[in-house]
Amino acid sequence: MAKKDLSKRRIWQDYSGANATRAEHNFYDVFKNAFKNTNYEIVPKPKDFTKIYIDVKLEPETQKQIYNPTEKINKHGISPDYKIINKKNNKILFVEVKRQDGWVEGKPRSAGRGNAHERSNKFFTPGLLKVLRKKSKINNNHLPFWTVFFGDITRDPCRVREITLWYDSYKDHYYMWRDATNAEGVLNHFFIKLKKLLD
């Protein structure tokens, strides 16, 4: 690791250590502080895709068979939780942060029945993946998004296996934030495994 990278690493490790007494870190605050005086910025609820469905062309026969409201649809799209931007080259990594219950000690298996993790998989669909790739400018060998899971789902034996299979060889694109009182792990994951995609 280059000397300048080690220096940056100390900055995020110092931030993590200084805030270790907090009950639970907030993803946005962690990265907003880590990006101070850098070329990186975290933006909550980005509006890049709030209209992507409006201009989707349908086959004439399909158009005839669906409801066609008289009022114009002005907003129909998606909004990731965050985007991380390298302001030097405008490369973007979109971020979903999913908190979910899970099956852990002292809870019944049904405690893991939530589906927030499944809903996050919309970014894997061919059409959305194409749209996200174009906007992000990230190399097509990688995903243009990162999903951070926290809560009991990160220790649920069933959900952890599901997520591991889904992401397959893209394991750097998800993170199980098991100890949200400690920001070092999630920061290390970004700076070591994902930041290079934005350079």
CATH topology: ECO RI Endonuclease, Chain A
- Rg over CA atoms, rounded to whole Å, is 19 Å
Which strand order does the major sheet show?
1-2-3-4-5
Structurally, the number of domains stands at 1
Protein traits:
199 residues; ECO RI Endonuclease, Chain A; 7 helices
Could you explain the architecture of this structure?
With about 200 residues, the protein is of the alpha/beta class. It has a single domain, classed as 3-Layer(aba) Sandwich (ECO RI Endonuclease, Chain A). The protein contains seven helices and five strands, in the order ααβαββααβαβα. The chain has helices at about 5-20, 25-35, 60-65, 115-120, 125-135, 155-165, 185-195, and strands at about 40-45, 80-85, 90-100, 145-150, 175. Strands 1-2-3-4-5 form a five-stranded mixed β-sheet, sandwiched between helices. Helix 6 links the parallel strand 4 (about 145-150) and strand 5 (about 175). Helix 1 packs antiparallel against helix 7. The two termini are about 15 Å apart.
What's the arrangement of secondary structure elements?
Elements: H1 3-18, H2 27-34, E1 40-44, H3 60-65, E2 82-86, E3 91-99, H4 116-119, H5 126-136, E4 145-150, H6 157-167, E5 174-177, H7 184-194
Parallel strand pairs: 3-4, 4-5
Antiparallel strand pairs: 1-2, 2-3
